[in-house]
Design goal:
With 247 residues, the protein is an alpha+beta fold. 31% of the residues lie in helices and 30% in strands.
Amino acid sequence: MSVAESPSPDPEAVAIARRLLRTGTRAALATLMPGTGAPYASLVAYATDPAGAPLLLISTLAVHTRNLQADPRAALLIEDPARPEEADPLREARLSLAGRLEPSADPVVARRFLARHPDAAGYASFRDFGFYRFVIEGAHQVAGFGRITDLAPADLLLDLTGREALVESEPGALAHMAEDHADIPPLYATKLLGLPEADWRFSGFDPEGLDLVAGRRTARLLFPAPVASSGDLRKALVALAGTARAA
């Protein structure tokens, strides 16, 4: 799949694509069959790393994994998880990613995936399962009739240079919020995002925003301004809590 890069895409298109990428939990994965090069499609669960790259946990018993071992090129198709059930999927936003899948032993990959898919902890340690990171090389977004945009990796991924300490603080910050401020995620979800009451919790954060989950439901809350440090994060959380309580 060849995807052209757009030098200056519409900011709204970028925002939609980033939301789809961050809030999705499953995608259609396309790989290439060895020998014939025929396309093979399957359904996979995914999460994202702090920069926004998709993360997968797949088994060597699966056809798509054997395909990737022969040729790492792949594509992912992500639909809008917020799409109303009665809506026509072909009229709603979706995002196609082109790139390749690479095995990863990075503990951040495992942590981020299991935070989004806690049920996977039961088999993540099986010998035939392994974590992969999707290296985005291009993207094609359809955000509705006639709203088609080609995107470059830089349009979707965050530059974490200088924010390494913030990324490293994620496990401790999430544990602190879960233990001492469990009321905050539901408050954000209902008051700031207008979502129904549920057992909302934080599954991760990055310089741009917070990821929330409640069972199989997901949401994304952007910070008032990007954060670069733990101090910035605390200020943003306090400000958002104040706004939510006032609402």
